[in-house]
Design brief:
Blueprint (H helix, E strand, L loop, with lengths): L5 H7 E10 L2 E8 L5 E7 L9 H15 L8 E6 L6 E6 L4 E2 L10 H19 L15 E3 L5 E3 L35 H17 L8 E2 L2 E2 L9 H9 L11 H8 L38 H34 L8 H31 L16
Antiparallel strand pairs: 1-2, 2-3, 3-5, 4-5, 6-7, 7-8, 9-10
Helix pairs in contact: 3-4, 3-6, 4-5, 6-8, 7-8
């Protein structure tokens, strides 16, 4: 861990009142003496570990995750340091002012408000799951969703984050009962795990009770006994499917199930949503790979040709193969006169298209940045301003 030394860190930040505590440390409100701004400081006490280094590992993951993320719905990373005298570890981040959605429990939620929160949370998850590797929060619940005074939603507490997918499972169980997907009991986590937790969160807010108090039918939350019929209940039911292979797998699939009319307005700092329905599935602008422009020309030609051929292949997959495969499935006996099954099939198709589009855009970006007709980028030291 980078170490700025205890005097610099402890003198810069004046610790104030506590904000909360968890398995990975306590969080305090603090004042940055250099800027005068209020910040949040998370402290992990080494003496409290008792020989168990798992909390330290999770604390490190949280630091690494926040340092690599930049989204208006995620607290901004500021600093981290260590006290050599006490052995305590400190993470400094943006203080998110507002109220947690857990304070809205106790009365049934307004459907229009629930849809706004759902789509805003989907925007955050789309960003996290679109990272390479995907970032899985693993502890999404009402108390970790903060509603800012201006109405924007913010996801906090990345103490249980997983920075990569491990198909063999085997990690420590992280989560909160009621909101935790069944596969988390075995240490497994994928983007669909966060989708389940978000569905449980919205279902709890809709019913006005914590998720562990919602009626159940076996492993499934019984939404028919707690929510009124409608589109929201249908979508939540698909998000809360206990079997992750049958669950809506990602934010794009949930949005497709909800319909484009409830897609949230774009944030001022993000690109406006494209007009075409195909592009609307894409979660982010095409990436840029400027370092590729400095490759030797012969290598750029090779990569450029390969990237365009691969792009053409993924165009065929996107516009021919995927639609054909799902159209054939939809025409089968299993989906005829079965509206709920057909809806899930369409959601899976949207999710598949989103994944293919993401790969295709990356390949296009590689081709663009290795175009041999462009001049290679100058090294940093040779640029003129």
């Amino acid at each position: 861990m980078p170490e700025t030394g205890p005097p610099q860190g402890l003198q810069r930040y004046q610790i104030m009142e506590p904000l909360g505590a968890g398995a990975q440390g306590r969080t305090f409100r603090a004042i940055d003496r250099e800027t005068g701004a209020a910040v949040a400081v998370k402290v992990l006490h080494l003496r409290s570990l008792g020989g168990d280094w798992k909390p330290f590992d999770l604390f490190e993951r949280e630091c690494q995750a926040l340092e690599s993320l930049s989204h208006p719905g995620i607290p901004r990373y500021i600093d981290r340091f260590t006290s050599e005298t006490s052995g305590d570890f400190f993470l400094v981040m943006e203080l998110v002012e507002g109220t947690p959605l857990s304070q809205r429990l106790g009365r049934p939620g307004d459907p229009a408000e629930l849809l706004r929160w759902l789509t805003a949370a989907l925007d955050i998850l789309e960003y996290l799951h679109g990272r390479q590797p995907p970032v899985i929060h693993r502890d999404l619940k009402p108390s970790n969703l903060m509603l800012r005074p201006d109405g924007r939603l913010c996801l906090i507490d990345f103490g249980g984050v997983r920075l990569a997918l491990r198909p063999d499972g085997g990690s420590t169980m992280i989560g909160t009962f009621g909101y935790m997907a069944p596969e988390q009991l075995h240490g497994e986590a994928t983007p669909a795990t966060d989708i389940y937790a978000l569905g449980a969160t919205i279902a709890a807010l809709a019913a006005g009770v914590p998720a562990d108090q919602l009626p159940r039918k076996g492993l499934q939350i019984d939404l028919e006994r707690s929510l009124a019929p409608g589109r929201l209940r249908d979508v939540l039911s698909a998000m809360l499917e206990p079997d992750p292979t049958r669950r809506l797998a990602g934010a794009a699939a949930v949005r497709a199930a909800l319909g484009a009319s409830v897609r949230p307005p774009p944030q001022p700092s993000r690109r406006a949503a494209p007009a075409s329905s195909s592009e609307a599935l894409e979660p982010a602008p095409a990436p840029d790979y400027p370092a590729l422009r400095s490759l030797p020309k012969f290598l750029r030609v090779f990569v450029w040709l390969w990237a365009w051929m691969a792009t053409g292949l993924f165009f065929l997959i996107e516009f021919v193969f995927v639609p054909t495969v799902f159209a054939l499935q939809a025409s089968g006996r299993r989906y005829k006169k079965k509206a709920h099954r057909l809806k899930r099939l369409r959601a899976r198709e949207a999710d598949a298209l989103s994944s293919v589009q993401r790969i295709r855009r990356r390949l296009q970006a590689i081709a663009t940045n290795t175009d041999p007709r462009d001049r290679p980028a100058l090294p940093e030291g040779d640029r003129r301003t």
